[in-house]
Amino acid sequence: CSTSDDNLLKNIELFDRLSLRFSRRVLFIKDVIGSNEICLWAFYGHGKKLAEVCCTSIVYATDRKHTKVEFPEARIYEETLNVLLYENRTGPDAELMQATSTRGAVAPVVCTSDDEEERRGGACSQSGLGRLRSNKNN
């Protein structure tokens, strides 16, 4: 496709930028000979594959099929940040695994009124009214 070359270069440039920026925190490996995929981002934490972002898709034209390379920048950044959550941990943390999994994500507790905060026994997060009160007292 017409934009595939540009998108492949964007993926390579992003990989280089991320590997330079986080080289002391994350191990980056560029597979240039072993993979069948043209552009595939794989993310690992504690020896397990956490996520994968494939940048290629097949587009069928009238005469033949073409490989289209995309640049899913937001997804790549999201998965990179998720990998950084595993940094400096001795082993997988059950709460971290639940918080970062797509199936087990739990929304934080947020209260919208004083009555609701009292019913929850002050278990509301520091947002909304709680944050306004702390700013007012300061």
Automatic annotation (TrEMBL):
Region (Disordered): 117-138
Entry superkingdom: Eukaryota
InterPro entries: BACURD1-3
PANTHER family: BTB/POZ DOMAIN-CONTAINING ADAPTER FOR CUL3-MEDIATED RHOA DEGRADATION PROTEIN FAMILY MEMBER, RE57120P
Descriptive protein name: Uncharacterized protein
